[in-house]
Amino acid sequence: MFNYKRFMIMKVNVHAVNFSADRKLVGFVQARLDKLEKYYDKVVNSDVFFKVDNTNGKENKIAEVKVNVPGNEFIVKKQCKTFEEAVDLAAESMERLLVKRKQKIRAKA
Q1: pLDDT digits (tens, 9 = 90+) for 76-109
Q2: Could you tell me the superkingdom of the organism this chain comes from (predicted)?
Q3: Per-domain residue ranges of the chain
Q4: Does CATH number 3.10.20.310 belong to domain 9-108?
């Protein structure tokens, strides 16, 4: 039997507020969030919002990751020096949330 799910790529929508994101950043986000399917395979889609905080500090890049799964929506927001670092930290937090969700569902079954 052929498994089509293995070859599907999760739909990731990237929204850059008040600037345009380059292809390298979008590619990095897609690659990083595709790894979330290892932890929870029922992810429907995800949205990533990039914002620049108007403060004088170096950590002014904000990445907000929203992941939709059947029945829930998880949102993680991180602020770092670079967007890549913020996405990486947000994805790590999202991995933990998805593992918790998966364990909760297994416990009910």
Answers
A1: 999 999 999 999 999 999 999 999 999 988 898 7
A2: Bacteria
A3: 9-108
A4: no
